[in-house]
Amino acid sequence: MHRYPGPGFNGGNMLYGMFGFIGTLVLLGLLALFVIYLVKRSKGKAGKPGGFGHAQPHRPPMPPAVQILDERLARGEIEVEDYMTRKAALLGSAGPVANEWTPQPPPADTPPTDETKVDPAG
Domain boundaries in the chain? Predict the structure, then answer.
């Protein structure tokens, strides 16, 4: 009978075990690379039609003149009526669009009435 050197060294079990360990590491590495590839690919398609992300609805850009007009109204350089007239002229309509938000003039500074006064004593 032929003897092998020591327990567990029967015919190359150690060699098979080493290749099994290295093979498992290679397989896990390939799996990790595949997952990274899929993540990068999905990020590239996010926001595009047919991609994985939610596509934003297409909204035509506002003309630069309307943006400037909006900014002037926000800074208080023009009145609301003037804003509406100029915006209608820029957009080529006869008046404000029915579904569009219409800015309201700020409330006039009125002194508080007895009903709106707060009693500090409670």
Answer: 11-47, 62-103
